[in-house]
Structure formats: structure tokens, C-alpha cells
Design a protein that fits this description.
8 helices; 83% helix; two-stranded antiparallel ribbon; 2 strands; 279 residues; mainly alpha
Length: 279
């Protein structure tokens, strides 16, 4: 449409040039042919030029305003066409967005169920064992007192997060923003609760290495530190660390449970909005 309008304006300009540009030349030839004295016409020419300049300036100014208005109208039309195209594309993709969001919700709900199972306390384990000997759900300490995350932790905070992200990025920016809050929340809880515990076990490992290097060098080199019979002080320190690990494990599990439940509510709200748009 804008191309046709431009062509029309160019054609009009060419016609005007062909019609009006030769007029002064023809008029001059005509006057010379009639024997007109141009010296007498000088004052009239000056008057005519002086009186027409303001008019022509005003006309030029109005022409610029009209041109700017036409350009603005064309830009508004293009903007409307782009918005209409984006709206059609968005509506056409709504079913796929809803499917991806539903798949994300299914994954989140499976994670919530998995966490609830982990949170369930084994009654026999709770009654028969002290906190330092009870089952840890997300973390573990190996034979060298190195603190690590088990496969369950990696599944809940890494593998499942990646699966959710792969679907969420296909929904909309609002859903992805909620996903980032979940991911950052899990990371924040790690640095608040897990990282200090990791540091404590690292310090304990270094202390055992320093205390028993001379007396148990072969065990330290070829075996595991857990094979060493610790003195009363270090044995008590290890028991306290395992007890703290047990309670930290429960707190961290509860924290990520709340994060996933909150995220699930947000996703269901977004799902309701998308379904309403589809209607």
C-alpha cells in the first residue's frame, strides 16, 4: 500500500515539473519576441518576488507537515500490521504452549510427590537410632568424611530442573520468570543451609589428616579415614556433625518442598490464563 502511494506521489511530482518548469522559459521567450523592455519590468519583478516568497515558504512548511503526517500514518499502519501478525502467531501457538505448560506441571507434581515420600519418617529408624545415625535423604558422607550430594539430590535439583526448563521456555516469559525464581530459590537455600555444612566437613577432614598423619600414615595413604579409631574428642565432633547433617537434610528438603509447591500454584494460575485466552 505504501509503495503504491509513493509511486503516485512520484508520478504527480514528475507531471508538475514537466508542466510548470518550462513556463518561465517560454514566458521569457515570448516577452523577448514582443520586444518588452526588461529594465522597466525590474521593479515589478522585485515586488512579485518579495510578495511571493512568504507564500511559498508557508506552502513549503505546510508541505513538510503533510509529509510528516503521511509518514506517521504509514508507521502506525505498519505497527498495527506487525501487532496483528504477532497476535495471530501467538493465538496459533496457544495449544502448544498449553501442552508444554501441562507437561511442566506434571513434572513438578511428580517432584512434589517424590519429596513427600522422602519427608515421611521411617518410624523404626526414628525410634531406634540417634539423630547422628538416622537415614539421610539428600546427602552423604563417604569413608574419608567427604560431604557429597546423593543421586536423589541431583535428580530433584538438577535433572528435574532441566526437564522443567525445556518445557517452560516454550510457554511465555511469565512462566519462565517463575521458573527462574524456583531455580534461584533452590540455589539460595543451598548456600544458606548446605554450603556451611560442606565447609564443616571439609574442616573436619583436614583436622583428621593433621591429627593422624604421623600415627596412621599407611591408612591415610592406602585406606579410608573411617578405618581409624578416633579419639573421644574427634568421635564426638563427628557425631555432632552427622547430627547437624540429619537436621539440615530435613530443613533443606522442607525448603525445596515449599518452593516447588509455590511454583506449582503459579504454573496452574498461568495455565488458567492461557486456557481462558484460548476460549
Amino acid at each position: 500500500m505504501s509503495k503504491k502511494k509513493f509511486s503516485y506521489d512520484l508520478k504527480t511530482l514528475l507531471i508538475c515539473c514537466c508542466c510548470f518548469v518550462p513556463i518561465p522559459l517560454l514566458l521569457g521567450v515570448f516577452l523577448v519576441h514582443k520586444g518588452i523592455n526588461f529594465q522597466k519590468l525590474g521593479p515589478y519583478g522585485d515586488f512579485f518576488a518579495g510578495s511571493t516568497v512568504p507564500v511559498l515558504t508557508l506552502v513549503s512548511f505546510l508541505a513538510i507537515i503533510v509529509t510528516l503526517k503521511q509518514q506517521q500514518d504509514q508507521l502506525e499502519l505498519q505497527k498495527k500490521e506487525i501487532n496483528d501478525t504477532n497476535f495471530r502467531i501467538y493465538n496459533d501457538s496457544l495449544p502448544d504452549r498449553i501442552i508444554n505448560l501441562e507437561e511442566s506441571i506434571d513434572i513438578v507434581q511428580s517432584v512434589i510427590e517424590q519429596i513427600e515420600e522422602l519427608k515421611a519418617e521411617d518410624l523404626a529408624d526414628h525410634l531406634l537410632n540417634s539423630p547422628d545415625k538416622r537415614e539421610i535423604k539428600l546427602f552423604k558422607v563417604d569413608g574419608n568424611y567427604v560431604f557429597t550430594m546423593n543421586e536423589t539430590y541431583k535428580d530433584l535439583t538438577d535433572l528435574k530442573i532441566k526437564k522443567i526448563r525445556n518445557n517452560i521456555v516454550k510457554v511465555n516469559s511469565k512462566a519462565y520468570q517463575e521458573f527462574l525464581e524456583l531455580k534461584n530459590g533452590i540455589l539460595s537455600q543451598y548456600f544458606e543451609k548446605v554450603h556451611p555444612m560442606n565447609s564443616e566437613f571439609t574442616s573436619f577432614y583436614q583436622k583428621i589428616m593433621a591429627d593422624y598423619m604421623d600415627s596412621h600414615d599407611s591408612t591415610i595413604i592406602y585406606g579410608e579415614l573411617s578405618e581409624i579409631n578416633l579419639d573421644l574428642e574427634n568421635a564426638q565432633k563427628l557425631a555432632d556433625l552427622r547430627k547437624s547433617l540429619y537436621y539440615m537434610d530435613k530443613e533443606y528438603l522442607q525448603a525445596i518442598s515449599e518452593l516447588y509447591n509455590y511454583f506449582n500454584i503459579k504454573l496452574n494460575n498461568i495455565l488458567t490464563e492461557l486456557i481462558n485466552e484460548l476460549k
